[in-house]
Design a protein that fits this description.
The model has no long low-confidence stretch (mean pLDDT 87). α3 packs across α4. The chain has a 6-stranded mixed β-sheet, sandwiched between helices. Strands 1, 2, 3, 5 and 6 form a 5-stranded antiparallel β-sheet that branches. The chain is an alpha/beta fold. Helices cover 36% and strands 25% of the residues. The protein starts with a strand and ends in a 5-residue tail after the last helix. It is globular and about 50 Å long. It contains 9 helices and 11 strands. The chain has a single domain, classed as 3-Layer(aba) Sandwich (Rossmann fold).
């Protein structure tokens, strides 16, 4: 069953076509990587799917329902989470407070001046449990802005998953990380997306081929190929257009 599908999707900026007849299918429970050269339209595709952009033409289906043009907050309520290429945590809030917002959102709890959040023991307990799972409990009370780059990215990935979405969209989750940080992030993603569906934009081919169950190659705004990693690895058209002589 497809949890996410786009049909004949187009998007343009001032007449310049960025996405051209994109028909993407993501099966429930798989980790699906989207790869392609810079300018291929990967982040634009994410923005259309998650409701940041309205497509010029075409449709987006999520869990079998037409959600074309739904705003991001509606997509979140329907069970879609997203991280961004540029970190989007609340840097002045503590690591604990960042994760707590996701936990509260999942429970349908809204902050207000008359609601003493710190007395919600179950929220605190779940937040601390998440922090232990991502090895950030030692930084519980640090402002998010004080974290190292790798831990900051890990926090953002975890925030995208704290709402317990059915589908999580991860945009360049290992961008700018060292080798050790990347290895940790891969294991974190593998652990946190177990029994979930994840769509991942990623340039690091080692990350892609170690995580993905299926890979879609986007080139010049359209899908060049889509299939399991072994098939994509041997696809000569993909090699010529993107992978080239890279060892993957």
């Amino acid at each position: 069953m497809n949890i996410l599908e786009t049909k004949a999707l187009y998007h343009n900026f001032s007449g310049l076509e960025v996405l051209f007849n994109v028909n993407l299918q993501v099966k429930e429970g798989e980790r699906h990587a989207i790869i392609g050269p810079n300018g291929a339209g990967k982040t634009t595709l994410f923005n259309v799917i998650t409701g940041t952009y309205m497509p010029s033409r075409g449709e987006v289906f999520f869990k079998g329902k037409d959600v074309t043009g739904f705003k991001p907050h509606r997509m979140i309520r329907r069970g879609m989470g997203r991280s961004f290429q540029i970190t989007s945590t609340f840097d002045r809030l503590t690591t604990f407070q960042n994760i707590r917002m996701g936990v509260m959102s999942r429970k349908g709890i809204r902050f207000n001046l008359f609601h003493k959040v710190d007395k919600l023991e179950d929220v605190t307990r779940e937040t601390d449990d998440v922090l232990r799972r991502i090895n950030l409990h030692g930084e519980r009370d640090l402002p998010a802005g004080a974290l190292s780059y790798g831990k900051h990215r890990s926090l953002e990935i975890s925030m995208a998953l704290a709402t317990d979405p059915d589908l999580v969209m991860l945009d360049e989750p290992t961008a700018g990380m060292s080798k050790d940080e990347t290895h940790y992030a891969v294991e974190l993603i593998r652990r946190l997306t177990k029994e979930k569906t994840a769509v991942i934009i990623e340039h690091d081919m080692d990350v892609v081929f170690s995580l993905a169950d299926r890979i879609t190659v986007l080139h010049l705004g359209t899908i060049l190929a889509s299939g399991p990693p072994a098939e994509i690895r041997e696809n000569q058209t993909v090699k010529d257009a993107y992978l080239g002589e890279m060892e993957v």
